[in-house]
Design a protein that fits this description.
By secondary structure, the protein is mainly α. The protein has a domain of 33 residues. 62% of the residues lie in helices and 0% in strands. It has 2 helices and no strands. The chain is rod-shaped, with a radius of gyration of 25 Å. 0% of the residues are buried.
């Protein structure tokens, strides 16, 4: 492996950039997970207490 010159080091591009779109999608994902958790918890609570509507 060779050593890079100062010029080459300054011109390295890449890495991770956090954009507003990525932040929005992370927020949306968290919101979906919270909503799914609430629905699952509510369903489990209704099944446990016997307050489930019949499927006639």
């Amino acid at each position: 492996m060779r050593d890079l010159s100062i010029y080459e080091l300054k011109n390295i591009k890449g890495g991770f950039s956090l954009t507003s779109t990525a932040i929005k999608y992370v927020g949306d994902l968290i919101e979906i997970l919270i909503l799914a958790g609430r629905k699952l918890g509510s369903s489990l609570r209704r099944i446990g207490s016997g307050e489930v509507c019949p499927l006639d």
